[in-house]
């Protein structure tokens, strides 16, 4: 109840109305329903942030289950000037069967059933992570997966992506944005989201400019800044045979 009273207030609401509507008819309806929401001061932004990581962390879980490998790198929230660059890296590494991780780990080396680089994870409102994960194929280990993923990361840091890869990212991003605006619900959702995030719905229509400005040099620069050992946390599950239950004593309990 305390959480609800703090955040579910008029000062913290954004309403978007989209379609063939008349303002003189729509506004009384909005007043009718939203005037019931209590007032109050807008909640303060969260100021507590995770301290900077200064050393690599890793954990290995040995368990009789499916092996998996993950590693994550800290990254800023969506308001960072390089947010579109993170999107470009994630797209080039993970978007479909032409992506680098799929072609390398799944198609060519055939060591993984699935491989992706996801950003932001688990969300983008606050500083989060750029996470790589893969599921090894039978007969292959999380360590093989780790080495293969880091080879792909190193390529990003030392060699420019191709013109085709960069162009495909920009084309897909433009198409996704335009598809989201194709109906009233999508347009309303996007307008409300950008007004809430940035305090200005017009920011929605500036996103393509930011995407178009992403360069090969930007991708190498960001990759070299965040994909470093001191910013890395890794975890893996290594399959271990289940432990046998102790045999019962012959003749029953003594």
Any idea how many domains?
Answer: 2
What is the beta-strand fraction? Answer: 15-25%
Uncertain segments of ≥5 residues (pLDDT<50)? Answer: none
CATH fold type of the largest domain: Cytochrome Bc1 Complex, Chain A, domain 1
Could you tell me the radius of gyration in angstroms?
24 Å
SSE arrangement, N to C: HHEEHHEEHHHHHE
What's the CATH superfamily of the largest domain, by name? Metalloenzyme, LuxS/M16 peptidase-like
Largest sheet: 5 strands, mixed
How many DSSP H or I helices? 9
- The N- and C-terminal alpha carbons lie at a distance of 58 Å
Q: What's the shape?
A: globular
Helicity level:
40-55%
Second-tier CATH architecture of the largest domain: 2-Layer Sandwich
* CATH class category of the largest domain: Alpha Beta
What is the spatial order of strands in the main beta sheet? 1-5-2-4-3
Instruction: Briefly note the structural class of the backbone.
Output: alpha+beta
**DSSP strand count:** 5
Determine the mean pLDDT. Answer: 92
Key phrases:
254 residues, 5 strands, globular
